[in-house]
Amino acid sequence: MIKHALQARRATDFAKWYQEVISEADLAEESGVRGCMVIKPWGYGIWERIQKLMDAEIKKAGIDNCYFPLFIPLSYFEKEADHVDGFAKEMAVVTHHRLKAVDGKLVPDPDSKLEEPLVVRPTSETVIGAAMARWVQSWRNLPLMVNQWANVVRWEMRTRMFLRTSEFLWQEGHTAHADEAGAMSEMLRALEMYRAFAEGPLAMPVIAGEKPEHERFPGAVTTFSIEAMMQDGKALQAGTSHYLGTSFAEAAGIKYQDKSGNQQLCHTTSWGTSTRMIGGVIMTHGDDDGLRCPPQIAPHQIVIIPMLREKDADEDQAVLDYAKSLKSKLDERTAFGEPVRALLDIRSEKAATKRWSWVKKGAPLIVEIGPRDVEGGKLALIRRDQLYNDDGRLATRFPEKQSFIEEAGALLEDIQSSLHREADLRLHDNIHRDITDIKEFYDHAGSYPGWVEVQWSKPSGAALDKIVEQLKELKLTMRNVPLDASPADGACYFTGEPAVERILIGRAY
Amino acid sequence: MIKHALQARRATDFAKWYQEVISEADLAEESGVRGCMVIKPWGYGIWERIQKLMDAEIKKAGIDNCYFPLFIPLSYFEKEADHVDGFAKEMAVVTHHRLKAVDGKLVPDPDSKLEEPLVVRPTSETVIGAAMARWVQSWRNLPLMVNQWANVVRWEMRTRMFLRTSEFLWQEGHTAHADEAGAMSEMLRALEMYRAFAEGPLAMPVIAGEKPEHERFPGAVTTFSIEAMMQDGKALQAGTSHYLGTSFAEAAGIKYQDKSGNQQLCHTTSWGTSTRMIGGVIMTHGDDDGLRCPPQIAPHQIVIIPMLREKDADEDQAVLDYAKSLKSKLDERTAFGEPVRALLDIRSEKAATKRWSWVKKGAPLIVEIGPRDVEGGKLALIRRDQLYNDDGRLATRFPEKQSFIEEAGALLEDIQSSLHREADLRLHDNIHRDITDIKEFYDHAGSYPGWVEVQWSKPSGAALDKIVEQLKELKLTMRNVPLDASPADGACYFTGEPAVERILIGRAY
């Protein structure tokens, strides 16, 4: 019987387990400000790794980073009607620019009321569109491709750390093109970048595909997403890419003179990923001992804990020297084409406390060094993804120091691919393609329902609304039409009409 | 007679020149949103370089990055009285969380009024203090040191790009310590980090010192700053570091149990630098041809322009191949301990247009390659900090390709130190220590007034107010008491009483 580091169990209370991982791995906490979280060093360190790796991919695609205003005047939103409808209901609105003290309390100064209220950006299509309209004159300026790393705010009634918070951090790419083909190709490039990023650095397998009509970004012609399967079988939308047609260009006036001298509207795209990905990583790789952090995004990949007994100063010094020399040797090694990130943990805590704090945080490799290791030229190694032996004891290994140094990079790469393999099997084993009765299936699917793929005729309007409503009663939603799904060859599950494609259905965050 | 790239001249209209550099170097532009700017790729690229290098210094000091909420409840501000007084007058206040359409116009929905308005953070002492109160229990948790990279908002009536905008980007460090000595030492460490950063990567010489009482951060015990001298002789405060005593700790409840088991208040610090530094770089290094970007923070250090004539495809291909091979060789070189950043500019613009765009942006080295260079194994090189010969023509050199590759790193380092040297001479030549009549001095100081250092008795209260008022009439302010100023040895310039220290006075941004 294993004594796990957490109280909650994934199998019995997934929601509670998720909160406990976040708290015990010291990733984030409630801030006291409604709907906003504090991202703590380990959580923010993961975000910094994500930023660094994703930013390199964005730059490689020839896209420049910029920064646009936090505030968007209301009038910008009024220009694109569908966009307003989609966002108007959940925005933070700035109405005053000064406070004054009244009876010892601070209140907004009525004299400082803004003529035009400002919205705190929920996304930046409108304000970036206004800039693009200034920047684009001729076909020579196209494609115009920018990205920003920023905070955005969407007022949420029910919040959940990393998954749905009123304020979150993200990147948003915005591009303008001469024609639909150029814009569609960029939209798909971004989608593929997200797919490869999820499967690579996050070790999180995903299904990339097109969202159904009613799940599109407000104002978009089409929206694509990557969907990951969490360990409770639910879907997490982990990134989206939109082709916006010419409607945002028309609202903002993004026009160019083509080679024949005619004025044309640009075709635009936008695409984004956010701190939500960290929630996905937790629910993909976490276990009953906390997070298992994929090595590529772990702020520290190898944590070295010297076992200082504080009895014999010479002995402690020898242990410390040995640990330091190990760290400096590891610093010279590489994994994933980058220098290995090793940390020497010299906090004044007990070694066991330190060990379990790193287990819960999910450091991929944990090394402990005691006097006997120094004598034998060895070390004690815990591999976070293979924590216990069959007998329920910690699966500690005792490699030679030198061979560990040489193998460290390969070990980290092995952990990364082993985490991916485990999640990939789970994803593909739990997409069900032979379900004839969705209600019955989910009624009996137990604790790990997974997703269902069905053929459908892709109706719109009232017919679509009816299907959406039916699914909603079962707490189900349509996720996406996988890019690599087989062609339809039968009848629509919902309407009985000839099907045109296959779509994934599941419970979702 | 040199024909400069800009219309405005530093010597005759510095303010207009500053705006023109920003626009012609494509650094930023007005956004259309009151007081907010759009930071364009070249400007944001400089900020990314600043972030990268500063972040490394912050991490080296053992400080962790976190992220705290954008919104701060009013009640947090009410806790620290001096802090409120200092900031309450210029904050963006969120009062509603939803919009609704009324007669086709969007308005804040009255039903969505917040019970407690939220302030968009002007700085984060209060909200980070609340987190620190949760995180600190015992002396073992100290020092607690965090930093965040974030946007902040201070409502400004008169704005100026990079120098004073309603929204700006910055880093803010916040630390809690067991005692005054620990906090003061961290406050001075951050100050020294800023001084070294300004003099190093920004090539911008500064004077580090203590601000006088009336210029302190609201609620601080003491504030230190770095002050840089712009090319119009005005001072720019380019970074500040504060010792906050125990008042913020008291307001937020940041307490720890000391080794004897007693509850103690923490001593806290905060320190920040912002996108304002980019304004400082422009006004320190810009000339009548645009920006001269210090190589350490230049997004591209060497720009290679192939001269394609579009007459002979083979010839163009040979030029392009030669340019590409040059770039790939430069990519292998280092400067300042980092890989050289070279760009091959293949935009479909005329070579002369490209050349002048990079001159105005301030790329440190501009390389042009034509068919004759390919034949001769040479290249045409423009060094941005030595743009013209004495005869007013561009000072183009024609080094061998191979020797340029070998010397590129050293050339960049030489440009960096030459920019610093030029600014350093200007700074030290224009601090006047023998002025007996400040009014008369500034009345006749002409276009380059510089600063005055005087001895003073450091009065406070009404006596200080009177001096501040006198100076204000001359549009002068006290900058700081330099850390390395000579000790006082005479009478106070203002009061005639025995002086206690020397203080810098100047016009300022």
Automatic annotation (TrEMBL), chains A, B:
It is found in: Cytoplasm. Its main location: cytoplasm. One of its GO terms (molecular function) is ligase activity. Its EC number is 6.1.1.15. InterPro entries: aa-tRNA-synt_IIb, aa-tRNA-synth_II, aa-tRNA-synth_II/BPL/LPL, Anticodon-bd, Anticodon-bd_dom_sf, Pro-tRNA-ligase_IIa_arc-type, Pro-tRNA_ligase_II_C, Pro-tRNA_synth_II. The keyword Protein biosynthesis applies. It catalyses: tRNA(Pro) + L-proline + ATP = L-prolyl-tRNA(Pro) + AMP + diphosphate. Pfam families: HGTP_anticodon, tRNA-synt_2b. Keywords: Aminoacyl-tRNA synthetase, ATP-binding, Cytoplasm, Ligase, Nucleotide-binding, Protein biosynthesis. CDD domains: ProRS_core_arch_euk. Residues 43-294 form the Aminoacyl-transfer RNA synthetases class-II family profile domain. Catalyzes the attachment of proline to tRNA(Pro) in a two-step reaction: proline is first activated by ATP to form Pro-AMP and then transferred to the acceptor end of tRNA(Pro). Consists of three domains: the N-terminal catalytic domain, the anticodon-binding domain and the C-terminal extension. Belongs to the class-II aminoacyl-tRNA synthetase family. ProS type 3 subfamily. Homodimer. This is Proline--tRNA ligase.
